[in-house]
Amino acid sequence: MTATGTLTDPTDLEAIRRGLAALDPEGRLAPLGIGRIEISDTAHLHVAEALDEALAAAGRPSRATVVILADTTPIRRDGELLAGLVERQLAGHHAVQLARLDGGHGALHADETVLAMAAEAARGADAIVTIGSGTMTDVGKIAAERNGGIPHVAVQTAASVDGFTDNVSVILRNGVKRTVPSRWPSAVLADVTTIAGAPQEMNTAGFGEAISLFTAPADWYLSFLLGLDHTFHPASLAMLQAAAAEPPDWSAGIARGEPRAVRELTRLLALRGIVSGVSNTTACLSGVEHVISHMLDLHHAAHHQPIGLHGAQVGVASLVATRLWREAIDTRVITPALLREPEPARIEGLIRQAFGQLGDGIVAECLRDAEAKHAAVIRNWARFEQVVADWPRHAEAFAKLVTPSATLRKALAASGGPASFQRLSPAISPELTVWATRNCFLMRNRFNLVDLLDMMGLWTEERIAWALAETLEAA
Ligand SMILES: [Zn+2]
Fold first, then answer.
1. Given pLDDT bands bounded at 50, 70 and 90, which one contains residue 420?
2. C-alpha count within 13 angstroms, C-beta hemisphere, residue 308
3. How far is C-alpha 121 from the chain's CA centre?
4. Distance 177 CA to ligand 1 centre (A)
5. In CATH terms, is domain 33-198 a member of 3.40.50.1970?
6. Hey, which residues does 189 pair with through a beta bridge?
7. Distance between Cα 310 and ligand 1 center (Å)
8. CA of 342 to the centre of ligand 1 (A)
9. Is 356 exposed, middle or buried (0-12, 13-18, 19+ CB in 10 A)?
10. Mean pLDDT, to the nearest integer, of 331-341?
11. Predicted local distance difference test score (pLDDT) of residue 1
12. Where are the domain boundaries for CATH 3.40.50.1970 in the chain?
């Protein structure tokens, strides 16, 4: 560890604060507002301690009124009900009330009904303790926010998403997922024993999401170099590079709930949450692989079909993204002679062709995003020429952000999660996979490597087939 602090241990928050402060002298990053992150086999035993710290830090009474929020699924730790274990720790010292939230959908949705229910349950309380996965934690953050920012201790019970350790919540608004600002939890206690017993597809989906850390930051950095992203910060880049320097070769056994793999996964997801939280953006962890996943969601939603697990989709799509990125890094495919200003009429044609079957609303939205993206590209054209001319030098920086695809593929397969589109649930057909990949740069106004390849005439059917070669199984 250096004097400024390591950036790769999410449980050493002081070191991360020091490390970030050294790289952010102007204080542009959001302050890291979590008091404690614990990732261990016995983290659940420290709820009382974490709560006492959070109450003291907030100037609240040490004997407090505490609301425990959980959903209706009984979560067990080694056979015992976790809510009971937590409640017993607090009951002697605090006035404790357990509120089980039921939005009437089976699985908890972070819709306004549930958010209002949670905020009401916590009214007048000094603190909130949530027990659950990502949705429960996101609900707890908002309930704490709506009650004047009271302390919130999150007991993490699955490693399905990276949203435990950040300052935003993913909520459902009119049936659509939205990321909204909320607040950092005061403490996150990730109990590895409980997480290891979570449904295996949750943890393997978490690993899929996690591995986008080994490719997505390159899209973010590219977008910054081209003048198109204003969320970029060198401290965030340093943290992502430090995390990407250690390949996820520990993934074997995630599906079987092996503690070492589950602990490493939880740590990686926690780091991701911290980076996006302090960076005030998810862009640093969302690139080509995320738009491919969003394309699948778009298709399924438009056809009223079930939407697959985000992380599982992102994991498979990360293998596609890293293949394309490593080609751009390791070969001479990106050359100045190929760079052409994009033609809006051609892009419009592609959007109508790709999305026409999904409805006019989607086409209109994509056209709006494409127009904004085109205008930004034209404004920054000089930077495009510079970056492409200087590509070999930039490739060295990209290489530090993108793990070779074979390494990621091995890690994803070892995790026990789906490593091909057909193995996702619902299974994605080869035709749908090609559609989602080919057209992924036509949705959203963010710029990524596929936009650049398309501008250079390199986004051909041959390259798409090559990019998908290892994630589509032969029929
Ligand atoms: Zn994601």
1. very high
2. 30
3. 29
4. 12
5. yes
6. 38, 155
7. 7
8. 28
9. exposed
10. 96
11. 44
12. 33-198
